[in-house]
Amino acid sequence: SQSSVPDSPGGRAAGPKHQEARLTALPSTSPTAPGRRHVRRYPAALIEAGPPFTQAVAAVAVSIAVSFAGRRFVPGWLVIVVVAVSAALLVMTSIWGWQARKDLVDRSTPGSVPNRSQRTTWVAVQAVLVLAVVVGASVIFVAGLQPAPSLASAYDTQDPELTMCAGSAQPISGDDPPAVRDDNGHQVGHLELRSSAICGTIWVKIIFEPGENARLIGGQVRIVTNRPADGASAPYLLPIKTDSGFGYGNMLSNAAACVKAEVAVRRPGADEFGPTATTQCH
Asked: What is the pTM of this model?
């Protein structure tokens, strides 16, 4: 006899047409099917990839700024600005990363609507800061690679009396002559910068007050001529042996950068030098 067990709900056998309808109603799981879960939201992906990119840019900018800080052609204020803005970017990217993860959670919540205007503002602000950091770091990098000009001269650290420079020397006027004092605070002389136009050099001359040179015989005068632009220095320790009334230090070229001098006196029998007298930079 025929079986009375139904092949499908309602007691009707599932014929070819019904099977085809059931298969058609099933959701597609093919990797190539244009299902909703396979649609890539590229703006959202950009938001998610933004924090690590921005952090990398900020880290490179800080490295460049710190590496070239102090170079002759690198502005110090620009280094400070690049480091400060990069630090601000690192903080902002942490907040950005948190916001990106929050957006991912919100998108999975039915009925949630992302705040697109806030997201756009956030991206715009960071884009401007990234551009500023990139430009600043680029300027520092290019300026830092510039070779420092040579300020040295063949006359550097030489004795002016042993060259032709002393014969063409003229005192530099217009400055109040710095007073030179011993360790007791007593003024023993004053300083005079001298310049040679022929040699393009400067050195300092100490002129003792009347009677002080004789009193200081057996003492010493510490004379240091400096060129701050390149850190060049011409030290000289002058022993006070005679009552000549003056003494002088060694030369440095001031053709491309200014030169100044520092002088201190130690009287005979004193343990320490007196205060340092410093000239202006010419």
From this structure: 0.55
Asked whether 219 and 245 are in contact (CB, 8 A), the reply is no
Partners of 205 in the beta sheet?
192, 248
pLDDT in tens, 48-107: 666 788 888 889 999 999 999 888 788 889 999 999 999 988 888 877 777 666 665 555
Bridge partners (DSSP) listed for residue 272: none
* Beta pairing partners, 223: 236, 263
Q: Which 3-state string (H, E, C) describes 14-82? A: CCHHHHHHHHHHCCCCCCCCCCHHHCCCHHHHHHHHHHHHHHHHHHHHHHHHHHHCCCCCCCHHHHHHH
The one-letter amino acid code at 1 reads: S
Structure confidence at residue 216 as a pLDDT band (50, 70, 90): very high
Whether residue 200 contacts residue 254, with contact meaning beta carbons closer than 8 Å, is answered with yes
Burial class (CB in 10 A: 0-12, 13-18, 19+), 70: exposed
Look at the alpha carbons of 104, 106, 109, 114 in this order and tell me if their dihedral is positive or negative.
negative
